[in-house]
Amino acid sequence: MAVRDILIIGHPMLAKKAEKVEKIDDGLIQLARDMVETMHKAPGIGLAAPQVNDGRRLITIDLSVGEKEADLIVLANPEIVARDGEAVSEEGCLSVPDIREKVARPYRVTLKGVNLDGREVVIEGEDLLARVICHEVDHLDGKLFTDRLSPLKKNLLRKKLKKATETGFKL
Ligand code: ZN
Asked: So where are the chain's domains?
């Protein structure tokens, strides 16, 4: 297992649509293990493969950050099949350091995907779990939470982030 580097906003991989996982092979299992380790080490409660520079549709989520094994979710080809309600709360991202902003998300979602045994699983998420699910699935579509902010907020963030990152980027 290895901790991988987390890409920061401005890297083109974070803006790309990730590709469907066709086969659960050793390489994918290794990626999943590394992602879990990287997420726990950060520490964070969710990670998507593009954040560690891998363009496959794989996400890891763990609200307990390694405390409860039952909380760990590792899913390939995750798809939100139902959404309900709305909740506005602060959100952050390991790829957008030091920035937290309020984002509206569904209060409840149903997530479908394939686990590492190749079985299809369905997960119901509420509140924070629903938020993390939406956030990570967004990553697979090349979207960061900052893309969901108002133009005014984006402008303010652009200035903040320009100082925080060495290279320019598009928000
Ligand atoms: Zn993120």
From this structure: 12-163
Close Cβ partners of 20 (under 8 Å, ≥ 6 residues apart) = 56, 57, 77
As to burial, measured by CB atoms within 10 angstroms (0-12 exposed, 13-18 middle, 19+ buried), residue 3 is middle
- The CATH class that applies to domain 12-163 reads alpha beta
Alpha-carbon distance of 107 to 127, in angstroms, equals 5
Has 37 been annotated as catalytic?
no
Residue with tokens 């974070």: 14
Write the pLDDT tens digit of every residue in 54-110: 999 999 999 999 999 999 999 999 999 999 999 999 999 999 988 899 999 999 999
Distance 69 CA to ligand 1 centre (A): 21
pTM above 0.85? yes
Q: Please tell me which residue in 19, 79, 91, 136 is annotated as part of the active site.
A: 136
